[in-house]
Amino acid sequence: xxxxxxxxxxxxxxxxxxxxxxxxxxxxxxxxxxxxxxxxxxxxxxxxxxxxxxxxxxxxxxxxxxxxxxxxxxxxxxxxxxxxxxxxxxxxxxxxxxxxxxxxxxxxxxxxxxxxxxxxxxxxxxxxxxxxxxxxxxxxxxxxxxxxxxxxxxxxxxxxxxxxxxxxxxxxxxxxxxxxx
Length: 181
Ligand SMILES: Cc1cc2nc3c(=O)[nH]c(=O)nc-3n(C[C@H](O)[C@H](O)[C@H](O)COP(=O)(O)O)c2cc1C
Prior knowledge:
Layout (H helix, E strand, L loop, with lengths): L7 E6 L6 H9 L4 E5 L1 H9 L11 E4 L16 E9 L1 H8 L6 H11 L4 E5 L6 E5 L2 E5 L3 H10 L5 E4 L2 H15 L2
Parallel strand pairs: 1-2, 1-4, 2-3, 4-5, 5-8
Antiparallel strand pairs: 6-7
Helix pairs in contact: 3-4, 3-5
Bound molecules: flavin mononucleotide (FMN).
Flavin mononucleotide binds next to helix 2, helix 3 and strand 6.
């Protein structure tokens, strides 16, 4: 088995269709990445008829344990950066209120506690959005609570909240150049 090179990227996928395919493509272009996949994300991958085409050496952690066992990796410096993209309003709300009862909310919490810089691509950032449903583009109108939660997340330590795919790409590129990877 290939040796796992660290520190590496951690990427948490949630069950959001918002730029889901684009995020999968971005993961495919990273070297040295581990994926943390929510239960909903596993279903959404299938609904959008996507396949996880992962770079060599990538590991996939699924949400199968109550204690979110893989979070232990954060204590040992395995990750230089966590990316949560795309992030559902559900996951953002839980993160904002300090709830960690799923794999993804746990990796977010543990990254924070281990001071691992985190980038969150929040989906609900404007009162009106066009998003891709499995059968094509649809309009959604995020509620005030969803918008407030995305805003609240911006005040978290070591957390960068991005609102568009372009911003995610730029923030990722900036982090790559900081890390020289
Ligand atoms: C096809 C599909 C697309 C979805 N897209 C979104 C989305 O863009 N934003 C969102 O907040 N929830 C979306 N959801 C709902 C979430 O999957 C649902 O709230 C789930 O409980 C989130 O769990 P997670 O945050 O643990 O991944 C979508 C669901 C489906 C079936």
